[in-house]
Amino acid sequence: VASESKREQFRRYLEKSGVLDTLTSVLVALYEESDKPNNALDFIKCHLGAALPEPANTEALHMEVADLKQKCNLLIVENKELRNRLMQYEPDSLSGVAE
């Protein structure tokens, strides 16, 4: 009886954490594949990987991208300002140069 209680607790844990739903959806996707893959385990791994949360370093990379975008925008503004100043002193120097 104790082992059944542990099994039931574990089943509820898997259900509550979404594991059963995720596994079920992956198995349904495999079942619905018209061309069954040669390696079912690779199919499951691939589809489970798509359902997993992003790696921990993803947030740091998103922050770095946002920082670099901000720096790029600042450099674009600075470049335009410098071009405008240069045009005041050397109007012919920028002809034919793409912005």
UniProtKB/TrEMBL annotation:
Record-level Gene Ontology MF annotations: transcription coactivator activity
UniProt entry keywords in alphabetical sequence: Nucleus
Gene3D superfamilies hit by this protein: 6.10.250.1060
Main location: nucleus
UniProt-annotated location(s): Nucleus
Source organism superkingdom: Eukaryota
GO cellular component, one term: nucleus
Spans through the membrane: none
Family: Belongs to the AMY1 family.
Protein name: MYC binding protein
Gene transcribed to yield this protein: mycbp
